[in-house]
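Why predict the complex rather than its parts? Because the way molecules touch one another can change local conformation, and only a joint prediction can capture that. The input here totals 226 residues.
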Amino acid sequence: NAGVMQNPRHLVRRRGQEARLRCSPMKGHSHVYWYRQLPEEGLKFMVYLQKENIIDESGMPKERFSAEFPKEGPSILRIQQVVRGDSAAYFCASSPNSVNTGELFFGEGSRLTVL
Amino acid sequence: EDQVTQSPEALRLQEGESSSLNCSYTVSGLRGLFWYRQDPGKGPEFLFTLYSAGEEKEKERLKATLTKKESFLHITAPKPEDSATYLCAVQATGSARQLTFGSGTQLTVLP
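Output of the joint prediction:
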């Protein structure tokens, strides 16, 4: 049973380019979360999605960031016009239901470097 | 605003030397407190959930406890493979489903 799959594992972008990070949840999981981990900081919540719905995006910057979880295919976190401050590890996590939502299964992360 | 503070930031132990990690939290209402383990270059791995003061959970050499203000992760007779960063997180009532994480304690167990 494959775990949470994230790709790419490493991504390098120049300032002003776009970054797209993909996340396939564990089989049978329909709840997806994105967290960001800046160097020397803890994990910060960004967004919580279910299939075709954004449930909570209170942690996501209003500008340049968007997330989706379509009916078919992976969840995507999109960062437009990246800046150096976007350099971080972006982790996706999934859960099977809306009950035990603190018991998350995390992927190995996508590490974004902005030059 | 929910806050989680972990101490110490880093801890070095000899193999077999038991110790405890601390997680202090401030939250309007606690839905749950969670412990995760994170190895370098990997995503966090879930360890425990605690819901109410007085609750305890155990797994191999690890035991997590909870009071109204803090949680402890006790490590008994640690082995080098227990070396990792241990993360504490809280989920507040009314906060939808987001977790607020502490910055972690980096544990190194020397052989």
